UniProtKB/TrEMBL annotation:
CDD domains: GT35_Glycogen_Phosphorylase (cd04300). SUPFAM superfamilies: UDP-Glycosyltransferase/glycogen phosphorylase (SSF53756). This is Alpha-1,4 glucan phosphorylase. InterPro entries: Glycg_phsphrylas, Glyco_trans_35, Pyridoxal_P_attach_site. The modification N6-(pyridoxal phosphate)lysine is found at residue 674. The gene is glgP. It is an enzyme of class 2 (transferase). The keyword Glycosyltransferase applies. Phosphorylase is an important allosteric enzyme in carbohydrate metabolism. Enzymes from different sources differ in their regulatory mechanisms and in their natural substrates. However, all known phosphorylases share catalytic and structural properties. Gene3D superfamilies: Glycogen Phosphorylase B. One of its GO terms (molecular function) is pyridoxal phosphate binding. It comes from Jiella pacifica. Its main location: cytoplasm.
Length: 827
């Protein structure tokens, strides 16, 4: 065969750049409608316009995608692979249009056909392939890697059903399936040439030749195909396009024809159903181990597929895997992909013939591990017999790694208790594999996600491993992408800031500092407040449309949106609302500041207490909102189905951001950053990234209350009941009495008995202990809101001083300190 001729891709090559004027765009949109969608423009439906615009934008992304990919390959630069079970992306069109700076021209182009860009953007379903903070962080990191020039590839799972849809029926959460792929997904490209067989079960054969170490060959009993789907991630100003590669599971044999031919039509599809089940649905457990076999299958499936892909790419460009760690950094986003450590060892030793010690050196140099929680119930551990049955060779490898680590610890002088703490095998609870320990020992760098969280990692869960490897743990405080979380969600504020300090902050968000002095400028404050007011109006409209509740944009919008969890303490917020309700009615003569308390968030379907908290919020809302004696001074709203798109409307509309977790339990938080960046003041505990926000904002601009992490730990050791505090705090007691008496659930007065009695018995989440401080701080904020100048001045300081909390900064730190990759790499 003759050599393939060099074929240049079509596209925007200098000297013929694509035209981005409205005329060209309008013509191309109609071309797509006609030739890709096969619709006459006059008959086009809303979804057809969405698809046509997406395809036009996608062409431009592809123009940047090819050169980005070529550049990395040709330069031989190190690539970063971000392995994550979750990518909570949300909508993609607006992000892409913004980053390519096509918002104005596309808006203009669509106007020619009487189509509104905003309407079209709202039709796109959220890609909800994640549960909450961890998944959203992965999405921000992907965007920031593309924006800061880090050659990154995200690897995850292409769930057919993302995070469930939440409806509220009679006050309670109902879960419904999410179906983001029903209209097809124009952003993804199926890559059947990148598919790999993934094994499960079976046995390990050991071959022993004289004078040589034994060779192990894994013979899996089952095989499943992992097929790649690629989505482009376009960075700011389109300078770089990275790839998000999601794996979909398919059967190797789509149908068992023998079974079908013998009349077993259902049995013929069993294999295919079993295979496809692996990537069918996202587990809705957040900060909680989902201990089922299918979950372990998901974890291994995407880890193994990603590693095969990484190795294939590496060997296509290099002679061997000797230099893998020079060319590849793999970041484990939590322990979900931690089995990768054992799998890479298997590939290096069993498949590529490396001796154990060399393979271990390569493995550790390649991996980094990010921990996102210290909650004991969230730490992953798998029963040994399940692990062994599903992944027999990986289990042997884990035993061998464990033996090596224990030997090292013994040589360092560790005693029995210390050794059992670092062991990869938990011998205490029916033997289990500890994924945190595996990820830790298999990585050269281990990081927490805020300064406090990182210190607590060293003192608690990883205390002994930290002693053994004192250099390994480092901090990388989280961040959020300012493109989605300021520019796109708050065009009003972005416009105002551009007018006031120039556009420099769009490229370097820390330049927002230039706006700090404007806090003292009355005219600017007024404009800043007007933007907030407009954003509040938009949220009020949404609440009115969806829930038929009228709220006053002049009231304080006091907002807590996040997963529902006991440690996040939505319950404390609701109790405070009830106490306020009681006080407003008891003291009608007082000058109360009108307040709207807004909640949103999903509970894990099996998390009983979290679901009760949602129910309580809705029950309290129903009573308070319909009580005329409150005179609209307090309104309570629970907005169903919190997701990224809803967050984009909520964040810019908040006056007050609730970040009130029990200190020491929220690893970082990222909602706290989005709110403050958009000019909300924070009421919060000294927890997670709130601590660093306090440092950046200054103590005048954030409202901190409550016990510190050390104080919480101390009180927990003493196991306090809430009873004495409740007895001594009338506001708290009356609120709890009202709940217990069924004031908010007259049809079922006992509904919240266990929620309340838990507080009396053991105030584990410090709700009673922190109540008074919380109440007092809220009243201080009431007073401040009446002095709008002072409030708005603090709000301006918040926006101006939050630039550091950009995920661009986080990514640059990872790139420099952990990956040694990207523009600022240290060789
Ligand atoms: N986090 O969202 C999750 N899921 C988990 O299973 C464990 C932790 C959150 O990760 C965020 C990103 O690091 C943190 O900001 C947040 O505090 C943490 O709860």
């Amino acid at each position: 065969m003759s050599a393939t001729p060099k074929i240049e891709p079509i596209g925007a090559k200098v000297p013929e750049p694509r035209q981005n004027d409205p005329d060209t765009l309008a013509r191309q949109i109609v071309e797509k409608l006609t030739y890709s969608i096969c619709k006459h423009p006059e008959q086009a439906r809303k979804y057809d316009w969405l698809r046509a615009v997406t395809l036009v934008v996608r062409d431009r992304i592809i123009d940047h995608w090819f050169p980005s990919t070529d550049r990395v390959r040709d330069s031989g630069d190190k690539r970063v692979y971000y392995l994550s079970m979750e990518f909570l992306i949300g909508r993609m069109l607006r992000d892409a249009i913004n980053n390519l700076q096509l918002t104005g021209p596309i808006r203009e182009a669509l106007k020619r056909y009487n189509v509104e860009l905003d309407m079209v953007e709202l039709l796109e379903p959220d890609a909800a392939l994640g549960n909450g903070g961890l998944g959203r962080l992965a999405a921000c990191f992907m965007e920031s890697m593309a924006s800061t020039g880090v050659p990154g590839v995200g690897y995850g799972i292409r769930y057919v059903h993302g995070f469930f849809r939440q409806e509220i029926a009679e006050g309670a959460q109902v879960e419904l399936p999410e179906t983001w792929l029903v209209h097809g997904n124009p952003w993804e490209f199926e890559r059947r040439d990148s598919s790999y067989e993934i094994g499960f079960g079976g046995k390990v054969l050991t071959q022993q030749e004289p004078g040589k170490p034994p060779r192990h060959v894994w013979r899996p009993a089952e095989r499943v195909l992992a097929v790649a789907f690629d989505t482009p991630i376009v960075g700011w100003r389109g300078s770089q396009v990275n790839t998000l590669r999601l794996w979909s599971a398919q059967a190797v044999d789509p149908i068992l024809l023998d079974a079908f031919n013998s009349g077993d039509h259902i049995g013929a599809l069993v294999e295919s159903n079993k295979a496809e089940a692996i990537t069918r649905v996202l587990y809705p457990a957040d900060s909680h181990q989902a201990g089922q076999e299918l979950r372990l299958r998901q974890e291994y499936f995407f880890s193994a597929a990603s590693l095969q892909d990484i190795i294939r790419r590496h060997l296509g460009e290099n002679d061997s895997l000797d230099n893998l760690a020079d060319k590849v950094a793999i970041q484990l986003n939590d322990t979900h992909p931690a089995v990768s450590v054992a799998e890479l060892m298997r590939l290096l030793v069993d498949v590529h013939g490396y001796e154990w010690a060399k393979a271990w050196e390569i493995t550790r140099a390649t991996f980094g591990y990010t921990n996102h929680t210290l909650l004991p119930e969230a730490l992953e551990h798998w029963p040994i017999n399940l692990f062994e049955r599903l992944l027999p060779r990986q289990m042997q490898i884990i035993y061998q790694i464990n033996a090596d680590v224990i030997r090292e610890a013994s040589q360092t002088g560790f005693d029995g208790a210390q050794i059992s703490a670092i062991s990869l095998i938990d011998e205490g609870n029916g033997r289990r594999v500890r994924m945190g320990q595996l990820a830790f020992v298999g990585s050269h760098a281990v990081n927490g996600v805020s300064a406090l969280h990182t210190e607590l990692m060293k003192e608690t869960v990883f205390r002994n491993l930290h002693e053994l490897y004192p250099e390994r743990i480092q901090n990388k405080t989280n961040g959020v992408t300012p493109r989605r979380w300021l520019m796109e969600c708050n065009p009003g504020l972005t416009g105002l800031l551009t007018e006031a300090i120039g556009p420099g902050f769009l490229d370097d968000i820390e330049k927002l500092r230039d706006a700090d002095g404007l806090a003292d400028d009355a005219a600017f404050r007024e404009k800043f407040a007007a933007v907030k007011r407009a954003n509040k109006g938009r949220l009020a409209d949404l609440i009115s449309d969806r829930l038929a509740i009228t709220i006053d944009p002049g009231a304080i919008f006091d907002i807590q949106v996040k997963r529902i969890h006991e440690y996040k303490r939505q319950f404390l917020n609701i109790i405070e609302a009830i106490a306020l309700y009681n006080q407003i009615r008891a003291h009608p003569e007082k000058d109360w500041t009108p307040r709207v308390k807004i909640f949103a968030g999903k509970a894990a379907p099996s998390y009983v207490q979290a679901k009760e908290i949602i129910h309580l919020a809705n029950d309290v809302a129903r009573v308070v909102n319909s009580d005329p004696s409150v005179r609209d001074l307090l309104k309570i709203v629970f907005i169903p189905n919190y997701n990224v798109s809803l967050a984009e409307i909520i964040m810019p509309a908040a006056d007050l951001s609730e970040q009130i977790s029990t200190a020491g339990l929220e690893a970082s938080g990222t909602g706290n950053m989005k709110f403050a960046l958009n000019g909300a003041l924070t009421i919060g505990t000294l927890d997670g990234a709130n601590v660093e926000m306090l440092e950046h904002l200054g103590e005048d601009n954030i409202f901190i209350f409550g016990l510190t992490a050390d104080e919480v730990a101390q009180r927990r050791r003493e196991a306090h009941s809430g009873r004495s505090i409740i007895d001594e705090t009338p506001l708290l007691r009356e609120a709890l009495d009202a709940i217990s008496a069924g004031v908010f659930a007259p049809e079922s007065p006992a509904r919240y008995h266990s929620l309340v009695s838990n507080l009396y018995n053991n105030d584990w989440w410090m709700i009673c202990a922190d109540f008074e401080a919380y109440w007092n701080t809220q009243r201080e904020l009431d007073g401040l809101f009446l002095t709008q100048d002072a409030w708005q001045s603090k709000a301006v300081h918040n926006t101006a001083r939050m630039g550091w909390f950009s995920s661009d900064r986080s990514i640059r730190e990872y790139a420099k300190d952990i990956w040694q990759a990207g523009p600022g790499k240290v060789r």
